[in-house]
Amino acid sequence: MYETELNTMLDCLIPARVVTCRPRPSDPWFDGKCRQAKRLTRRLERAYSAACRRATSQVNASASADVAAAKTAWYAQRCNYREQMPKTRRKW
Question: How far apart, in Å, are the Cα atoms of 45 and each of 30, 34, 58?
Fold first, then answer.
């Protein structure tokens, strides 16, 4: 009973709709090497973000040095990843 009433209320507020998801094949140039480079780039981006969060909570010289090192590593890897992509796929 409770579930039926809750579903009725939700259907009034947010009507259900059908969504079609079509699988799209990966681009032929996006191989394992590109996937690994992208994964490393995203990991370094998260590390930089975490270093920034830690630096805001700690006010010392080593925290700002960690942020600078993380940013440098992330930017270098991002340039490396972009160089691996074919020139026709680069949007930057």
Answer: 20, 16, 20
Give pTM, 2 decimals.
Answer: 0.66
Task: Please state, in angstroms and rounded to a whole number, the distance separating the CA atoms of residues 83 and 36.
Answer: 14
Residue 66: partners with Cβ closer than 8 Å, 6 or more residues away: 51, 54, 55
Output b/e per residue, 44-70; b: 16+ Cβ within 10 A. Answer: bbebbeebeeebeeeeeeebeebbeeb
pLDDT digits (tens, 9 = 90+) for 17-43: 889 999 988 888 888 899 999 999 999
